[in-house]
Amino acid sequence: MIRHILDRLTPQVDEVIIIANRHQQEYAALGVPVFSDYIQGFHGPLVGMATGLQHAGYDRVVFVPCDGPFISTELVKSFTGTIRAF
To answer: pTM score > 0.85 for this model?
Structure first.
C-alpha cells in the first residue's frame, strides 16, 4: 500500500517523509526519510501531524493516510507554492 501512495504522491510534491512508529527500517528502505512521533505512546494521528510539522522544511504541507488507496494523482494540483508531503 505504501508504494502505491508514494507512486501517486511523489510526482506531485517536492519531498515526501513518513511518520511511523513501527517498521521504520522497511519504510526507510523505500528511500524516504522516516520519523517517529515526538511523543512516545501512540497518541494518534494529530501527534503524527505535529511531528511532521516539526520536520517540514516548507511553509505548506499536505498529509495523506498510508491506508488511502484512492489518493488522487491531482490532489496537490490546486495548491500553490512548494508543498512537502507526509
So the answer is: no
